[in-house]
Design brief:
The complex is a heterodimer of chains A (181) and B (99).
Chain A lengths: L2 H9 L3 H23 L2 H18 L9 H19 L1 H14 L7 H19 L3 H11 L5 H8 L3 H19 L6
Chain B lengths: L5 H11 L6 H18 L2 H24 L6 H7 L14 H4 L2
Classes of the chains: A mainly alpha (181), B mainly alpha (99).
């Protein structure tokens, strides 16, 4: 069943259709949220919030853009709102993960180095300017083509290309002293 | 041997993370809960309850106002049972005190 048909069913009161829609898109929403928050539990919270919002406002979806574009927009906005709401909590969480990560393949020193490297990369991504970060996450976590990213962000394809180029440069600048290019 | 770039490696690991398999069920339960809350107290029920309470208060005040005292002073005096409840009756007699 196509997205349009499912949406018609949902607006007519068919909750099973909504379940189908959610099963179809939950990984996409979860992955995008992971790009912003880097933590499974937080990404799950955002995914839940996104789908509840979708259910409540599906009747306002005009169908002018693709459903997936509309869904990406909601996910990006809700992820950014989540980050603004939980700024302090997240600083503590990132420190916590540094000390709780365990891997059987590495010795404790390698493990610490790897955790520290991950923390630096996450911080570099998180401190990118908002638009660069959105473009970067949609491009790298979701592997969306520039055309689709442009539609989600309401920008031209050229602007998205520039944002991605700047994001890459910024990340290299932030990470080059410690992490190879 | 090709070595994966640390950024690519982190993104790959994060992308491989799977959400809770019960996530859909949780969301459906939340939506159901919200629906039930909305349907449990419809507006007409709340309005009926409020109107009923207002009617009871109004009725109470009306009944209270309609009460007219129609007793007379004489009757009020008759109610005083001092004369039938003679206090002397309860006093011990002199013959009982000796026992």
């Amino acid at each position: 069943m196509s997205d349009e048909q499912l949406i018609k069913e949902i607006t007519a009161g068919n909750d099973t259709a909504f379940r189908t829609l959610m099963e179809r898109y939950q990984r996409q929403v979860f992955r995008t949220a992971m790009g912003f928050v880097h933590m499974k539990e937080d990404a799950e919270d955002i995914t839940q919030e996104v789908f509840i919002r979708v259910y409540q406002s599906l009747h306002t979806f005009q169908g002018e853009s693709e459903f997936s574009t509309w869904l990406y927009r909601i996910t990006v906005n809700m992820s950014l709102n989540f980050l603004r709401r939980n700024r302090k909590k997240r600083v503590l969480q990132s420190l916590e993960t540094l000390f709780t990560l365990r891997s059987d393949e590495k010795n404790p020193l390698e493990e610490m180095e790897s955790a520290e490297r991950d923390r630096r990369i996450r911080k570099a991504i998180d401190t990118l300017p908002e638009r660069q970060r959105m473009a970067f996450i949609l491009s790298r976590y979701e592997e969306l083509p520039q055309k689709k990213i442009a539609a989600v962000m309401n920008r031209s394809e050229g602007a998205v290309e520039q944002l991605l180029q700047r994001a890459k440069e910024n990340l290299q600048k932030k990470l080059s002293p410690t992490i190879g290019k | 041997m090709h070595r994966e770039h640390p950024i690519d490696e982190l993104i790959r690991r994060e992308k491989e993370t799977e959400p809770n398999p019960f996530l859909v069920t949780h969301v459906m339960a939340k939506i159901e809960g919200a629906k039930k809350m909305r349907h449990s107290t419809p507006l007409w029920q709340s309005l009926t309850l409020a109107a009923g309470m207002a009617a009871v208060v109004f009725l109470g005040i009306s009944i209270g106002n309609s009460y007219v005292e129609n007793g007379t002073t004489a009757v009020a005096l008759n109610i005083n049972d001092r004369q039938i409840e003679n206090l002397g009756y309860y006093n011990f007699g002199d013959d009982e005190q000796g026992q």
